């Protein structure tokens, strides 16, 4: 894979870590996020999101257990905004929210003994460790998008796309039996009624529909678009998503 050749290390320099600590850390996040936090275990990361009350994506990130603390693996450019948003919800709970700059997120397509990315094993291995001097961000982005997986404000927007429209259900980004969280009512209704009417997909830039476009990635020749299920060309769907979209269209 040509995009792996420029890699000089494994650090994802476009990611940052927030540490959520305190005796109520996990219960605090449990009432906010789309995944179960109480059962989070070390070495078993979970992809999740903080939504609007209407169920639209605000921030997506990966959770890691670190003893009784939780590490949030998030976009570096959004770390401060996410910390501020979480602080609004904290109120008087015994929770501390701080940067963990002594640690970094790492990635490699092959890394024996390291956890797989929780969204899809084909994404490769992901782990937390002190930073190295290299940068694997561009390689990981190219690999991730080659699999039709989207993340971050630049691709998902903020308060623009319903969480299930980002294909979060197929990528393990929601637990339907965890209880209440912000945006839970609409998310659960869409799931149980099989009403995910639109999907985020990547199409060749030459075939872009600007009215549906959420991001244009000229360097990769891709257009990220939110299309109605019945208008999605099966050729644009990655294998892990094709079956779910076919079932949706048939239903």
From TrEMBL:
It comes from Sphingobium fuliginis (strain ATCC 27551). The gene is gcvT. Keywords: Transit peptide. This is Folate-binding protein. NCBIfam families: ygfZ_signature (TIGR03317). It comes from the Bacteria. InterPro entries: TrmE/GcvT-like, YgfZ/GCV_T_CS, YgfZ/GcvT.
